[in-house]
Amino acid sequence: MTGERRDAVSRPARKGIVLAGGYGSRLFPLTFGVSKQLMPIYDKPLIYYPIATQIMAGVREILFITTPEDRAAFQRLLGDGSQWGMAFSYAVQDHPRGLADAYRIGRSFLNGAPSVLILGDNIFFGHGLQALLDEAAGQPGATVFASMVSDPSRFGVVEIDAAQRPVTIEEKPVAPRSRWAITGLYFMDGRACDIADEVEPSARGEIEIVSVLQRYLDENSLSVERLHRGFAWLDAGTHESLHQAGEFVKTLQNRQGLLVSSPEELAYRHGLISLDGLAELADRQKQSSYGAALADLVAHEQGNG
Fold first, then answer.
1. For the purposes of burial, counting CB atoms within 10 Å of the CB of 305, is it exposed (0-12), middle (13-18) or buried (19 or more)?
2. Domain span at residue 241?
3. Residue 29: cis peptide before it, omega within 30 degrees of 0
4. Which of 46, 97, 183, 236 sees the fewest Cβ atoms within 10 Å?
5. Does some domain include residue 30?
6. C-alpha distances in angstroms, 44 versus 157, 246, 292?
7. What is the average pLDDT across 141-165?
8. Number of domains the chain is built from
9. pLDDT in tens, 30-45
10. Could you give the C-alpha distances from 49 to 129, 159, 245, in angstroms and in order?
């Protein structure tokens, strides 16, 4: 396994929110008894992948928003985050009220800080992803990540001009103006909670994230980072996509011998835990192939020390 350990990057002290609520109805009957974000994507729970993205984005404090029924299970799995050099908090969303509801629930947690919101079933991977996250972390206002899709009518869509600036944003348009879908990753400044409070619910009774983004667009303070070829954006919300995501991770890890979106590895790479701390985490999981992969990483790092 390879990879450089990163020095601390100077950037705004952003806090993270992982929205892991909802009831995963597209995955019934699998989700009758367990949250979809706790289901496996090959060798690790789905929730590990957005946590990995948050670590890469420079986040060190995360609020997990879950259903009341699932909160205890998330806490049992993730604890207080100290094992990865982080701080985890938990809140509940008793009823799905839209993505932007996360800013209302997370107001006291954020306390005016800029934030990174990611959906609990979104997976991001690709060479150069770290650079895009670093770029977004330094932008004022709000930043969204957009990916080219073949069926844009199923997504929020952003139209981008020749200067790579957003022109329009629409939620599931009948006649899309572009094929750039807005992914489930949002960088916001400290005004996000106030803006979410001012947004009127949509016809379906939800606080739409697109409405919040529209405010930033109207102020000319919305940026777009595009995920070009070579990036993978996976929304593991259906039986097929859940299986595809697992196969994707399995193929990459088995062929390259590199872990994909491992919070333990990234916590080490970003200086949140020591090599000894990583070794302890590997030993705790030594009976699994995931623990063995972490042990291989430790051995590699010790050999290069």
1. exposed
2. 15-255
3. yes
4. 97
5. yes
6. 31, 9, 13
7. 94
8. 1
9. 899 999 999 999 999 9
10. 13, 28, 11
Q: How far apart are CA 42 and CA 40, in angstroms?
A: 6
Instruction: Look at the chain and count its residues.
Output: 305
Residue 222 zone, left/alpha/beta (φ > 0; ψ -120 to 50; rest): beta
Task: Flag whether 296 is in a domain.
Answer: no
Q: What is the 3-state secondary structure (H, E, C) of the chain?
A: CCCCCCCCCCCCCCEEEEEECCCCHHHCCHHHCCCHHHCEECCEECCHHHHHHHHHCCCCEEEEEECCCCHHHHHHHHCCCHHHCCEEEEEECCCCCCCCHHHHHCHHHHCCCCEEEEECCEEEEECCHHHHHHHHHCCCCEEEEEEECCCHHHCEEEEECCCCCEEEEEECCCCCCCCEEEEEEEEECCCHHHHHHHCCCCCCCCCCHHHHHHHHHHCCCEEEEEECCCEEEEECCCHHHHHHHHHHHHHHHHHHCCCCCCHHHHHHHCCCCCHHHHHHHHHHCCCCHHHHHHHHHHHHHHHHC
The structure tokens 């993205």 sit at 53
What residue type is assigned to position 169 of the chain?
I
**Residue 213 counted as domain residue:** yes
Whether residue 99 contacts residue 73, with contact meaning beta carbons closer than 8 Å, is answered with no
Residue 155 lies in a domain: yes
Work out the number of other CB atoms within 10 angstroms of the CB of residue 56. 21
Of residues 126, 125, 194, 119, the one with CA closest to residue 155: 119
CATH number where 222 lies: 3.90.550.10
Residue 15 CA to residue 106 CA, distance in Å, equals: 10
pLDDT in tens, 224-239: 999 988 899 998 889 9
Structure tokens belonging to residue 245: 């995501």
Q: What is the mean pLDDT of residues 16-22?
A: 94
Task: Report the alpha-carbon distance of residue 51 to residue 197 in Å, rounded.
Answer: 26
Q: Which residue has the tokens 């100290």?
A: 82
The first and second tokens of residue 293, run together, are 């992969």
